[in-house]
Amino acid sequence: MVDxxxxxxxxxxxxxxxxxxxxxxxxxxxxxxxxxxxxxTLEFDGIKHVLHTIPSGIFHKNAINxxxxxxxxxxxxxxxxxxxxxxFNIDFVAKLLISRKAHLIxxxxxxxxxxxxxxxxxxxxxxxxxxxxxxxxxKTGRNGMRVGDLEFDDWKTKYRALADKHxxxxxxxxxxxxxxxxxxxxxxxEGVETLKKLTFIDSEEFIFKAQxxxxxxxxxxxxxxxxxIDFGTYPYxxxxxxxxxxxxxxxxxxxxxxxxxLGIFKAYTTRVGSGPFPTELFDEDGATMGRVGNEFxxxxxxxxxxxxxxxxxxxxxxxxxxxxxxxxxxADVLSGFKTIxxxxxxxxxxxxxxxxxxxxxxxxxTPIYTEMKGWAKDLTKLTKAEELPPALNDYxxxxxxxxxxxxxxxxxxxxxxxxxxx
Length: 422
Ligand code: IMP
Known about the structure:
The protein is an alpha/beta fold. 31% of the residues lie in helices and 22% in strands. It has 12 helices and 20 strands. The strands form 5 sheets. The protein has a 10-stranded mixed beta sheet, with helices on both faces. Strands 14, 16, 17 and 18 form a 4-stranded mixed beta sheet that branches. It starts with a strand and ends with a strand. The relative contact order is 0.16. It binds inosinic acid (IMP). Inosinic acid binds next to α5.
C-alpha cells in the first residue's frame, strides 16, 4: 500500500513537518522527485532541521528512507546533509537507501543553471541555482550520469566527457560566470566517496517487494503542484513532475497501488522565485503574513511572496492529484486578521471563471474574493479540534465544501506537537 504526500501550491507548504508527524504510521518514506532545491523543515525538541535530499522520515527509529530514481542528487550537498546529522547517530547504511537510477548533479550542472539564468535577464525563472534544470535536461536528453554509474571503475571518464561538454555550453551562454572547476571537482569527488558508503538499491524492486510484504509506504513529494513541469505555471516551474503521477515514474509505483493522496496547503499562499501569482499582496497584509509566518526560503533564504488563499488554483491541484485528504498548514499565521479573503474565481476576458486558464499572469486574470470573518485567538497552544475558534471552523468548512475533500489536519505552529487532528 502506497500513500502520497504532495504540496498543492508553489512549494513550502510544510511537507517536511507532516511527513515527520505521520512517519510512525509508515515503514518506508520514499522521495520521488526534485533534488536539493527542496528544503524540508522539521522542528521537534526545540531544534529546527532542514533536509534537502534526505527523506523526512530519517529521524524516526523504524522508518527506512528511500531516495527514488526520480530524484536528482548533488553529492556535495548530500555530504553536508549527512555531516549535519552526524550527532544523531543514525545508521545511514541501514536506514537510507539510494536508487541506482537516480541522476547525479555535477558541479557543471550548477554552473550551467547560473549561466542560463544570467542569460535570461529579467525573464529569469528565479531558480534555486542547484543545477536542477540542467540535470533533468541531461536525463531526458539521455546524457546523464546516474548513481549506479559510480559502481563502475570508469565513472570518472564518463564524468569528464559530460563536464567538458558542459564547459563548452557555459562558454556558449557568453555570460560572466567565475568558477574554479578544479576546486568544485575535488569537492564533488569527496561527496561521491561519501555517497558510495551508502547502500545503493534497485529501488523499484525494493518498493515492489515491500508492497508484496504488506509494508506501508509514504511517497514524499517536493516543491508543489503549481511548480510541476507539465501542469505548473510554465516556464516558471521546476523540471520534474511534482504531481501524483511523478510518484509512479519516480519510484516505480503502479497507479492502481496508490491509496491515499494527502494534499498539503497553507491557509494562505506563498511563492519564491519569479512567475505569476494572482493573489499576491503588496500591502501590509502581505507583509504581516511574511513576518508572522517567517516566510523565507529554507534553501535560499529568499523572502517568499505572500497572498490570500487561491481556491481556483487549489481546486486545480486537488483535481490533478486526486487528493483524498487535505492538511491545512500555518492556520496560526492568520490569527489577528479582521477579515480573511479567499479567491473563489478569476475575472478572465470579462468573464468570471473557476478554472486555471493557460496564462494566469496579472494582465490576464484578476482574483475575485469571498470575504470571511477573521479570528483573534492565538492558536499555537491548541491541541484539540474542539478548541478552534468558530470563525476558523467556518473557514475550514467553506474550504471543505468548495474542494469536496476533508481537511484532516490543521497545523498551528512549526513543532511536531502543534498539530491538530480532525
Ligand atoms: P529550480 O527547481 O531550482 O530550477 O527552481 C525553479 C522554480 O521553482 C523557482 O521559482 C524556485 O524558487 C522554485 N522552487 C524550487 N524548489 C522549490 C521548493 O522546494 N520550494 C519552493 N519553491 C521552489
